[in-house]
Design a protein that fits this description.
alpha/beta; Leucine-rich repeat, LRR (right-handed beta-alpha superhelix); Severin; 21-stranded mixed β-sheet; 7-stranded mixed β-sheet; 51 strands; Villin/Gelsolin; ADF-H/Gelsolin-like_dom_sf; phosphatidylinositol-4,5-bisphosphate binding; leucine-rich repeat; actin-binding
């Protein structure tokens, strides 16, 4: 059954009805008020003509040009608001004013050139607004018939005169004639308007000649506006209006105010800005109720402000900008109620010292006073500078303590000044003047003595009566204090304050008040609390409290009924006891509470508080993460491939898995927020059982595409993602409705938003709200809302959902109070932010939003983890240990098959290319391990025969464990198509062969694990480009190839990497291979290969690089030469390297290099150390890295790191330098800043095989 016929009022403000108007509006046959403001209407919908009971209609801020037809049929219409449209006289039918019930009409801000025809027939009009039109004359009959007008606004028109019949408006209380050319009109009708309270004559060309002299005869006038006129002084009749409360005299030519201002004893607001005043009268200080005084843009100096201004005890606002003030009277600082003080654009030199004593001052504007010197503030406790960044203490002592490290003895934990005992003795002997601390202590002692004397004097009468205080110790239960409990979340203020009967039912452990119409009707599966309130003989309130137990009620309802009955007694402060009543065994006193016989109903109406385990049904949803204002929102979009945008981050919610998709140009701030949003959803809605996965564009997993119903073929054939989200994208402004239920009707008004911000404090526990976000519609149930309102809201939400045009992904969701989902919370500003302090903003900007950082800091410590900075550096693996591991892992290796991606499919890798990896290729290695099972040592058991044991062992020998591991190696310049091809082709074949025993490991260039590296026996070669693409120089010649052999952190991580042929890369501590090709007429690959041995390189690497060179260039056309450092030939070697250049002669930095990653992706700031075998790809664009090479500490900033990460990383680097200064005083570090693609040679030499950064396509 539809609830639309029961709706009495609804507010559709800011809905877009420009294309279609809801046809279901016809069903609202009982609607009495309807608001259609800002709905883009260009004409009156025909559905409005069917609403015969409509009384109040608002259509302001639309595009209406005519209102013919439908509105004239609304016989019950009382108020009509049509302001801010495009109405002309021809578009208003005269029949509209035949509506006898019409009392309020607003036609302001339209295009009317004259008063609408037939308006004089609307004799019952009380409010008429014709302002901001082009009306030139008021017809005489208008005021003859409209004698009941109370409010009349004719401002901003072209009126030059008014009809004399205006004196007939004896009931008029508000008249606005502002901004009309009434220079020749003297307003002689004003004295007849004795009921007038508000008069606005701003901009009506008033002078002393045409000013209405009978103004003082208006005995009820409280507000007068004479601004924007040409008055040189204030007429005497204005001083005589003693009833004035607000007076505006701004933008005139007034040069003085008379002492007669003291007659305005009721005046609260006075505005004399933009005049010619030189001084304010002293009589102004006699206005006891004056709260706001504006004197901006005058000629006031120090003498012009009366010294007695401090007598204005009620003054809250004083504005004196753009004057000639050099000082202000000290009396101004005695205005204790002052909240706003504006002294900008003056000639201030200083201010009174008492300016700092204005505790209630909220706004102090002193701009554009170049010579101003502020008086010193009272002494304040100095704030700790170590807490400068987001409540994080970056002092070395604190961070060492947090990391669990010992504080060095040279750095005391507390820098307290030791006491000087000798100076103290001398001070005591001399008996000199006391310090401020001693004086304060003396005052405290004196105060304690005075309090003791007062207590002693108060006890004298009791002691005289012979009642000394008992010294007997109290019992343990007597000394207990009753805890202060808050029962307001269970019961309301009015409960138990009026005679009558109040009943609550127990639902989800809480009491819920029920309607009076169902009193005496109890469900057998429920429990109830019954309160009877009445007056006793002395006129005091008394209470009777019962809790009724149904026979079929669950245990939680029974217990909660008893508990909350006691809570109700404590809440009311009643002395009665709670009485238990059971179904079928009620007392006569309980049955007497009801006028009719008690009725039992089978079943239960409320839900039990015990959880039932049900299989949750999750709907796949895709959210666009975007910033709007100061918060981050999740906007639902269609879960399809085309919804993704490379400039944004998206969250794909599959229920048990949440994928965070990061576009290649998405902002780091939104990426971090997306991660934190997903963490919040998992924690609050999925009980931390949801797996969160991050997917970067171009590196998506197969499971992610399956979540979007994409097959591998569709992914490969899909077009590149387009940037379809507008640059100025703004979501639809949410509309918050409050569901109101009366006797047989429903109302749906919109909640007024303070400062146009949706705040969660607007939600009241007693009510039910509907939040319409266009893409989603939420129904929020307050804990104290009634069941009938909830049921009505659910039905009404469905009607509202179907009434508007919405995307296919839109949903209706129910939101109980206290269990709000994260997507619902993001619609409200500042509600349960993912992080208490936004790490993407500065502390000042966060404070401007109204957040109380001090209070937050007390409630929660800012979590950080800098322990990695104080951990010792990872030492290199000894050669013997590396060789042992290599031998063991290769012993377990039974078989290894290698494949390479070629023409979109994997083919076997030729045996001679094993160990050669190209940066533009993808490789697959299928490794089969045979791991022997360790047998227990044979023991000589009692009576055992060794020969029998040997026979048994031969027959029952355990089989070795077989492990199958697939390594997928991806080069730095290789795309992700290889991974997708492997996932959907080769991996499936391997799984069919080996089943669940198969393990897949995806590894990237220079990020290989040790076990994989060991299979190549230190002959791991990385070449630039692709296997079958012959690289050529710009002039078509074969290029020079230059290789660098290096081990990072041990012999197992030895690699030979091709680098740019340049002599600056040489180092005496390493070995290199230089291949110089010769130009030949045929295709024979002839040339010369130099093996360059550094003077400080180790013998093992020298021997290894010779073996590698012989295997790589095993050709009769290539000659191999071994060169020791210093024996290089000039002709080929240095020419191939671009000429002789200075290079490093040692690599001591290899013993000190450390790389740290600074990030807040976990929701708090952390520093983590990369392993010793780090590479260039470890430099993440989203983070900041700290690199230590033993001489310098580099702060490397990624292009997408946040501003606050830079600040926190900078402080972390300083702490690290201080720590290393203590640990290694012989090697002081200096801090340097570097950015991506701007790294110096001192930075890049710490990375093996440095080249251009990877470009994401």
């Amino acid at each position: 059954m539809s609830v639309l016929p029961f709706i009495r009022g609804v507010d559709f403000t800011k809905n877009d009805f420009s294309e279609t108007f809801p046809s279901s509006m016809r069903q609202m046959s009982r609607v009495q008020w309807l608001t259609l403001d800002r709905t883009q209407l260009a004409e009156i919908p025909e559905e409005l003509g069917k609403l015969q009971k409509l009384e109040h209609l608002s259509l302001n801020h639309n595009r209406l040009e005519k209102i013919f037809g439908e509105l004239t049929d609304l016989t019950c219409l009382r108020s009509l608001d049509l302001r801010h449209n495009q109405l002309k006289n021809s578009g208003i039918p005269p029949e509209l004013f035949h509506l006898e019930e019409l009392t309020t009409l607003d036609l302001s801000h339209n295009k009317l050139k004259e008063v609408p025809e037939g308006l004089e027939r609307a004799k019952n009009l009380i409010v008429l607004n014709l302002s901001h039109n082009h009306i030139e004359i008021i017809p005489t009959p208008l005021f003859i018939h409209l004698t009941d007008l109370i409010f009349l606004d004719l401002s901003h028109n072209r009126l030059e005169t008014l009809p004399p019949q205006m004196r007939r408006l004896i009931n008029l209380k508000s008249l606005d004639l502002s901004h009309n050319p009434l220079e020749l009109f003297q307003l002689r009708q004003l004295p007849s308007l004795q009921s007038l309270e508000v008069l606005n004559m701003s901009g009506t060309q008033r002078t002393l000649l045409n000013f209405p002299t009978g103004l003082d005869s208006l005995a009820n006038l409280s507000e007068l506006d004479l601004s924007h006129n040409s008055l040189p002084k204030l007429p005497d009749c204005v001083y005589n209006v003693a009833t004035l409360v607000r007076l505006n005299l701004s933008d005139n030519e007034i040069n003085e105010l008379s002492a007669a201002v003291e007659l305005w004893q009721r005046l609260e607001s006075l505005n004399v800005s933009r005049n010619q005043l030189v001084a304010l009268p002293a009589a102004l200080c006699k206005l006891p109720k004056l709260r706001r005084l504006y004197v901006n843009d005058n000629k006031l100096n120090f003498e012009g402000i009366p010294s007695g201004i401090g007598k204005l005890g009620a003054l809250e606002v004083f504005a004196a900008a753009n004057n000639l003030l050099e000082m202000v009277p000290e009396g101004l600082c005695r205005c204790g109620a002052l909240k706003q003080l504006n002294l900008s654009c003056n000639r201030l030199i200083t201010l009174p010292d008492a300016i700092h004593l204005l505790e209630g001052l909220d706004q102090l504007d002193l701009r554009n006073n170049p010579e101003l010197v502020m008086p010193p503030k009272p002494s304040e406790a100095s704030k700790a500078t170590s807490l400068e960044f987001y409540n994080i203490d970056f002092s070395l002592q604190t961070q060492l303590r947090l990391a669990g490290a010992a504080v060095p003895p040279s750095m005391p934990a507390a820098a307290a000044t030791p006491k000087d005992s000798t100076a103290r003795k001398i001070r005591l002997r001399r008996g000199g003047p006391r310090s401020e601390g001693d004086q304060d202590a003396a005052k405290v002692l004196k105060g304690m003595k005075d309090v003791a004397k007062d207590n002693e004097a108060g006890c004298l009468p009791e002691e005289a009566a012979g009642k000394p205080e008992s010294l007997k110790p109290k019992r343990w239960d007597e000394s207990l204090e009753k805890p202060q409990l808050d029962y307001s979340k269970f019961f309301e203020k009015e409960d138990g304050q009026q005679p009558g009967l109040t009943i609550w039912e127990i639902e989800n452990f809480l009491p819920n008040k029920i309607e009076e119409v169902v009193h005496g009707k109890f469900y057998e599966g429920d429990c109830y609390i019954v309160l009877k309130t009445k007056y006793d003989d002395l006129g005091l309130l008394t209470w009777e409290i019962y809790f009724w137990i149904g026979n079929e009620a669950t245990l939680d309802k029974r217990a909660c009924a008893a508990i909350h009955a006691v809570n109700l007694r404590n809440y009311l402060g009643a002395r009665c006891r709670t009485i238990r009543e059971e179904q079928g065994d009620e007392s006569e006193e309980f049955l007497a509470l009801f006028d009719t016989e008690v009725i039992y109903i089978e079943g239960g109406r409320t839900a039990t508080g015990f959880y039932t385990i049900e299989e949750m049904i999750h709907i796949t949803r895709l959210y666009l993460v975007h910033a709007y204002g100061a918060t981050v929102h999740l906007e639902p979009v269609a879960p399809v491939y085309s919804s993704l945008d490379p400039r944004h981050a998206f969250v794909l919610d599959l229920g048990t898995h949440i994928y965070i998709w990061l576009g290649e140009r998405s902002k780091n701030t939104l990426n971090s927020k997306a991660r934190l949003m997903a963490e919040k959803i998992s924690k609050t809605e999925r009980k931390n059982k949801c797996e969160i996965l991050v997917e970067r564009q171009g590196e998506e997993s197969a499971e992610f595409w399956q979540g979007l119903d994409m097959t591998p073929e569709e992914v490969a054939a899909a077009e590149p993602l387009k940037e379809h989200v507008p640059e100025d994208y703004q979501p639809v402004q949410p509309r918050l409705y409050q569901v109101q239920l009366g006797m047989g009707y429903l109302e749906l008004p919109q909640v007024e938003l303070p400062e146009q911000k949706l705040c969660h404090t607007l939600l009241n526990s007693k009510h039910v709200y509907i939040l319409d976000c266009c893409t989603d519609l939420f129904v929020w149930f307050g804990k104290k809302s009634t069941r009938l309102v909830r049921a009505a809201a659910v039905k009404l939400s469905r009607e509202l959902f179907n009434m508007m045009d919405r995307p296919e992904c839109a949903l209706v969701m129910r939101v109980p109070e206290g269990n709000e989902m994260q997507i619902f919370r993001t619609k409200f500003a500042g509600w349960d932010e993912v992080m208490a302090v936004d790490f993407t903003r500065t502390a000042k900007s966060v404070a401007k939003t109204g957040a109380n950082l001090t209070q937050w800091a007390r409630q929660q410590e800012t979590r950080t983890d800098l322990a990695a900075l104080f951990m010792p550096r990872q030492s290199a693996m000894p050669l013997a240990e590396a060789e042992q591991l290599e031998e063991e892992w290769n012993y377990d290796l039974e078989m290894m098959e290698a494949f390479v991606l070629e023409n979109k499919k994997f083919v076997r890798l030729p045996e001679e290319e094993l160990g050669h990896f190209y940066t533009g290729e993808c490789y697959v290695f299928l490794c089969r391990y045979c791991i022997p099972i360790e047998e227990p040592e044979p023991g000589q058991e009692d009576g055992a025969n060794p020969q029998d044991d040997s026979k048994a062992s031969n027959s029952n020998q355990p089989e070795d464990e077989i492990q199958c591991v697939v390594y997928f190696w991806q080069g730095r310049n290789a795309g992700n198509m290889g991974w997708l091809t492997f996932t959907f082709t080769l991996q499936k074949k391997f799984k069919a062969m080996f089943g669940e025993e198969l393990e897949v490991v995806r590894i990237f260039q220079q990020q290989e694990n040790l076990k994989f590296m060991s299979h190549f026996k230190r002959k791991f070669i990385i070449l630039t480009g692709k296997r079958k693409d012959k690289a050529l120089t710009a002039d078509g010649k074969a290029p020079v190839e230059f290789f660098h052999l290096r081990s990072n952190g041990g012999a197992l991580t030895t690699r030979l990497i091709q680098i740019n042929p340049d002599a600056v890369h040489l180092n005496s501590a390493f070995c290199y291979i230089l291949h110089v090709p010769f130009e030949t007429e045929d295709d024979s690959q002839s040339g010369i290969v130099y093996v360059w041995i550094g003077s400080k390189s180790c013998n093992e690497e020298a021997k290894l690089i010779q073996d590698i060179a012989e295997q790589m260039f095993n050709s009769p056309w290539v000659s191999l030469q071994i060169l020791n450092e210093g024996d290089e030939p000039e002709n080929f070697f240095w020419v191939a390297l671009g000429g002789r250049k200075p290079y490093d002669t040692d690599a001591t930095y290899m013993d000190y290099t450390r790389l740290f990653r600074c990030s807040n992706e976990r929701g708090y700031y952390t520093v983590a150390e990369k392993c010793a075998d780090f590479c260039q790809d470890d430099l993440a664009d989203d983070d900041i890295m700290i690199l230590d090479n033993g001489e310098h500490v580099f702060l490397w900033m990624g292009p997408r790191c946040s501003e606050v990460e830079v600040k926190l990383a900078y402080k972390s680097a300083q702490v690290y330098i201080q720590h290393m200064r203590i640990k290694q005083p012989e090697r002081p570090r200096k801090l340097f800043l570097t950015m991506k693609n701007k790294e110096s040679r001192r930075f890049t030499k710490c990375f093996h095989g440095w080249s251009a950064f990877k470009v994401y396509l």
